[in-house]
Design brief:
This protein is mainly α. It has 2 helices and 4 strands; from the N terminus they run H-H-E-E-E-E. Helix 1 packs antiparallel against helix 2.
Length: 168
């Protein structure tokens, strides 16, 4: 818009310059009044001042564009920094998720809320519901006749009168 205004100013100034020269010549020959000559001079000076003002407006507009571009670049940099922080936070959060390899009941919990753990550190034991098992301590002499898949009956002190069936 400022550039278009300057083009208009140049066209008007060119006409005023021509009129100024024409009225100067006519006034010097006595064919025109001094007032018309002065009016042509005033018109030319006024349009010249307007052109100077509009050039300053154009320069100011260009500087404003540079300022806005710098602000845009600053905002883009801020956005990039925020996206990087978000990505880092998402990655950190993914490290806090522990996925069980099987479904079942959790027993022997050793980890506590808010405590850092190392890779491979046991935190809990998961007993698969579909395959409940009992850990038993036998003497070596008792293992001689035991075979995998062998049927067993189990009596639990906490459940008097109930006999459970299973296999080794």
């Amino acid at each position: 818009q400022a550039e278009a205004t300057l083009k208009l100013d140049s066209a008007k100034l060119s006409l005023a310059k021509s009129n100024r020269a024409r009225f100067n010549k006519l006034a010097s020959e006595g064919a025109e009044t001094v007032q018309a000559e002065q009016q042509a001079e005033t018109d030319w000076q006024t349009l010249k001042a307007i052109q100077i003002r509009d050039e300053a407006v154009l320069e100011s507009s260009k500087q404003q564009v540079l300022i806005l571009q710098a602000e845009l670049n600053k905002a883009k940099a801020g956005l990039s920094a925020a996206e990087a922080k978000l990505e880092h936070a998402s990655l950190a959060q993914s490290y806090s998720t522990i996925v069980a390899p099987i479904s079942g009941m959790v027993t022997q919990v050793e980890g506590r809320n808010g405590v850092y753990v190392s890779a491979g550190q046991p935190l809990l034991t998961i007993v698969p519901i579909s395959e409940i098992y009992i850990e038993a301590q036998f003497r070596e002499t008792q293992l001689v006749n035991m075979r995998q898949g062998q049927p067993v009956t189990i009596e639990v002190d906490a459940l008097p009168g109930i006999t459970l069936k299973g296999s080794v």
